[in-house]
Please model this.
Amino acid sequence: MNHLKLSTSLFFLLFSLLILNAQNGHNVWLQNKKAKTVNVVSSKESPTLNIAKNELNQGWLGTDGATITLTVKRNKSLKQDGFILNENGITANTDLGILYGTFELLRRQQTGESTSNALSIPSYDQRILNHWDNPNGSIERGYAGNSLFWRYGKDSLTVTDSDIKLWQEYARINASVGINGSVLNNVNASPMILTSGYLQRVKAINDVLRPYGIKTFLSIKFSSPSLIGGLETSDPLDKNVIKWWRDKVKEIYTLIPDFGGFLVKASSEGQPGPQDYGRSHADGANMLADALKPYNGIVMWRAFVYSPTDEDRAKQAYTEFAPLDGEFRDNVIIQVKNGPIDFQPREPFSPLFGALKETAIMPELQITQEYLGHSTHLAYLAPMWKEFLESDTYQEGEGSTVAKTTDGSLFDQKLTAIAGVANTGLDDNWTGHTFAQSNWYAFGRLAWNHELTSEQIADEWLKLTFGPFSLENKNYDVDFDEQAWNTNFLNPVKQMMLDSREAIVDYMMPLGLHHIFSPNAHYGPGPWYGPARARKDWTSLYYHQADSLGIGFDRTPTGSNATIQYEEPLRSQFNNIETCPEDVLLWFHHVPWDYKMKSGKTLWEELCYHYDTGVHKVRTFQTIWDKAKPYVDHERFYEVQTKLRRQARNAIVWKDACLLYFQEFSNTPIPYDIERPLHNLEDLKISTMKRPLDYNN
Ligand code: BDP
Model:
């Protein structure tokens, strides 16, 4: 290569790097701003307050030259981390409260909300991300690159400068939405995580996260005493086992005095647990809780348990945990997935919410889109989480929403918490899909205030992420005109976000269908999946139960009677096919193909129209996004455009696969005003069984 060529290619390389770095999404909703000057007065200094001051200096969009005061003083009405914004500045109980107030103030400046006289206290005390990261750097159900915390290979435990920079950025992003805990490893935990090299790295991570108010937690493997401690048993009532855990906990707290505690997946999906030794979940959880108690550590014990019995999988968590109510220590909290099965696009809420009255209980949501199109499909999840949090359990009379049964307002819970399975990884934009950042954001915002609406959160996120405040205003192909921006960008794109989850339900699993994915990857359709030798509750046939008469899982008293686990009047409402909400109809009933739906259509027709509507919604999203082009930088625009195209192709595959397959049972034509399938069922069966669906890429 001659010199000229070399320098031209260098030029292009540098040029493209500059452009790419400008908007690769790495700054998420914390875009660089053209800040004005501000004079920040603080009565004291601390690492956390210094961060707050820096943020104010870098991001102040209020009056140029204004003075604001940060005041830390006791105020009971603010609970732990709440704050007050007023004309003079921010008041809070703690330094961390000031930091949260700072982010709120800056956010309000950018979104044009009032910055005075706002009092804010968190709905949940612990607002936690669960990372399903493995020690080798891979991430279970991760779709955005490898782990932020763990590396593969030799020297993988050495902490580098770039690790520290990354963890700092991660901590800042979390603090900006009030997240205050991170479980650093997979619930399917390796016992190695409790060995000294890994604990040293946890300490290093914790040191970086500390000033941002984020506690670290670890998932533990219940059989660690035998696996790495050389003991013959891991029986939670064995005195050597108890001692082993006490010593291990002491070792951890000697390194990390503010360590948060343990998350435990036990006696579930093949993981070891107390039941292997004839003990109960309470025996296991309490033994760990006792070890952690002297250090104020907590145990988050998961209720995601089911085994290959004849009992309906949807019933098993309740069956095992309801009888244990009241038997757990006060530093144990039971972590329950939102639905009774497993993070499906739509599930009714788990009946454990509200049913455990003497035991602290916390929702587990899934931010990573294991069952909603990974990081390819655009799915804004706040509407799904709101639907769950606002579900009425009726456990203490009408209005006993899931939110109230978990935030301490209905039950006297000493500990309140909410967790989300993280969608972050080493990808430049952290989450794979730019719009998946909105789910990280929404999780934090709802954990802080579960009364916010999905619309408000989407509005904030869009303004912060794509708004006119960033230094790179040249992102825009047009001069900034707020009204035009609202009409052509903000409003339609917000609507797209708000509709996106329901679109997925429509083209994947409408009317209460669930878990009909192709196996393992949980991406493409596999309603036909059900090999004779497979575990029944790991097949699609088990969940949809389609036959010549109808489709759906009968969970009423004529079937598995899972509805008994719900409080009245909900139980009767679900039991009666006429009053059961149609969006969960096939979750609770086996419904005849010619059953008349509320619309007057038969069930078969209604199913067909839902699948078709799903496809059309995605086609509309494409149009909305194409029109948004002048308002988005090139890189993020093309990324989302390309993904939407793929999502539209995938949606057609879902529709074709499910309709052609279920038609073999319904024996009825697909209504003729619906576009005809583009694929043959046999081809789809082959292609989507072998690998995650990537049809025609
Ligand atoms: C399922 C996932 C699996 C997890 C499990 C869990 O498919 O990878 O290990 O949940 O939550 O959703 O334990």
Summary: The longest strand covers residues 66-72.
